[in-house]
């Protein structure tokens, strides 16, 4: 396989950095989601907590809290930024080819929404693709307006999100402590149900499971627009050195605040970190990847593997969730219900390593066959058939 040069001027440099950042975001989201998969009650148990934490040995509990907080929201924020970057690059490509923008981009967004809907019902109730599809339609239209209008949309969306986050955080701080312990699922479709039972459970709880994409809609719009704006400001180019340094500083300060809020701030702190400071840490991650790739003459082994995951991001995102679901849920091996308190944390870390390695290997094999993942190939063929580019 040809090695991607990181210092090549123009599009190649940008593609290398984008692929690495996208790959890091995909594997990073798994670092958050793996704890959901290994909870015997799935997302419901992960959100409500319960006896799992109480029965975990203190040393392993400390490892769990730190590992979760290091990943919580940051790589999802990076992935959201990358979607905005991708939209801007698609807009530029359309204009260079003399095509109107957004034109029939809605076809691509519709396919992404359908992909996400299937992924939600069949694989993971925390799917992000449906929300991204809705956001993409809005932002694609906004990108066709003036810089001034885009700036207003970005600021407005950020203000709306900040107000919602402040409202939710205040409500959590004012809410009385829960008594009687968290409710238990009975029957539990994650541990005892069939594949169909779990799919039906997701549909029956559609409102609950789709609450987060609705809550972060304004944040997603702001992150998409910010990603596009950073591309235009040269964050991936040599002229963006000063910008990257500023973003790195923002990310570093935000990381300290994020860890403090997430580890010491209780439920309100976790929410404020995930939806407040974590997106700022993601800006630092984007700048860090761009700076490292720019400085290196060639991508090393880790960089090449991340780039391969990034080039097949949609396939890898689906694959990692399918594999984790098959390993952890009752319709598969059912490991989540079998991991006792003493081994749950190391077992979860081990499962992450296994799934991540399988995803990296699959991406490498797909890259050797032409660089396009199966989901990407199907998606692009469908888009062409429906008249979308």
Give a nutshell description of this structure.
With 389 residues, this protein is mainly α. The chain is built from 19 helices and no strands. The chain has one domain.
Please tell me the total number of domains. 1
Taking all Cα atoms into account, the compactness measure Rg is 21 Å
Shape: globular
How would you characterize the largest beta sheet? none
Distance from first to last alpha carbon:
28 Å
Mean pLDDT: 91
Percent of residues in helices comes to over 70%
Question: How many β strands by DSSP?
Answer: 0
User: What is the chain-wise order of helices and strands?
Assistant: HHHHHHHHHHHHHHHHHHH
Low-confidence segments, given as residue ranges, are 1-14
Structural class of the secondary elements?
A: mainly alpha
Tally of DSSP helical segments: 19
Beta-strand percentage? under 5%
Please describe what this structure looks like:
By secondary structure, the chain is mostly helical. It has one domain. About 75% of the residues lie in helices and about 0% in strands. It has 19 helices and no strands. It has helices at about 10-35, 40-50, 50-55, 60-70, 75-95, 105-120, 130-140, 145-175, 195-205, 205-210, 210-215, 215-230, 240-265, 265-295, 300-310, 315-330, 335-340, 345-370, 375-385. Helix 5 crosses helix 7, helix 5 packs across helix 12 (about 215-230) and helix 6 (about 105-120) crosses helix 19. The longest helix has 30 residues, at about 265-295. The protein is globular and about 60 Å long. The model is unreliable at about 1-15 (pLDDT under 50).
């Amino acid at each position: 396989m040809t090695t991607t040069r990181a210092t090549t001027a123009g599009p190649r440099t940008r593609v290398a950095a984008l692929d690495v950042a996208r790959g890091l975001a995909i594997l990073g989201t798994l670092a958050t989601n793996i704890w959901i998969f290994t909870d015997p009650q799935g997302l419901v148990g992960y959100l409500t907590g319960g006896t799992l934490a109480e029965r975990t040995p203190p040393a392993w509990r400390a490892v769990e809290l730190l590992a979760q907080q290091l990943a919580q929201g940051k790589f999802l924020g990076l992935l959201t930024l990358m979607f905005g970057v991708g939209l801007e690059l698609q807009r530029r490509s359309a204009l260079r080819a003399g095509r109107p923008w957004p034109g029939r981009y809605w076809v691509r967004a519709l396919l992404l929404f359908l992909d996400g809907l299937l992924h939600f019902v069949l694989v993971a109730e925390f799917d992000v693709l449906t929300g991204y599809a809705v956001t993409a339609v809005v932002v694609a239209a906004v990108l066709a307006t003036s810089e001034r209008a885009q700036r207003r949309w970005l600021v407005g969306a950020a203000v709306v999100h900040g107000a919602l986050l402040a409202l939710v955080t205040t409500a959590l701080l004012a809410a009385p402590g829960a008594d009687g312990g968290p409710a238990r699922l009975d029957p539990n479709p994650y541990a005892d149900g069939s594949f169909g039972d779990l799919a039906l459970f997701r549909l029956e709880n559609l409102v609950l499971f789709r609450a987060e994409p609705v809550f972060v809609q304004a944040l997603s719009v702001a992150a998409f627009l910010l990603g596009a704006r950073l591309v235009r400001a040269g964050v991936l180019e040599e002229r963006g050195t000063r910008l990257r340094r500023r973003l790195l500083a923002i990310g570093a300060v935000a990381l300290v605040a994020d860890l403090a809020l997430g580890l010491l701030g209780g439920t309100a702190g976790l929410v404020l970190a995930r939806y407040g400071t974590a997106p700022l840490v993601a800006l630092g991650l984007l700048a860090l990847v761009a700076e490292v790739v720019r400085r290196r003459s060639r991508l090393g082994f880790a960089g090449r593997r991340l780039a391969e995951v990034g080039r097949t991001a949609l396939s890898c995102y689906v694959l990692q969730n399918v594999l984790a679901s098959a390993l952890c849920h009752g319709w598969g091996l059912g490991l989540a219900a079998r991991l006792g308190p003493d081994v749950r944390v190391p077992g979860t870390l081990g499962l992450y390593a296994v799934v991540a390695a399988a995803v990296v290997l699959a991406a490498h094999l797909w890259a050797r066959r032409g660089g396009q993942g199966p989901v990407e190939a199907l998606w692009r063929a469908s888009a062409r058939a429906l008249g979308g580019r």
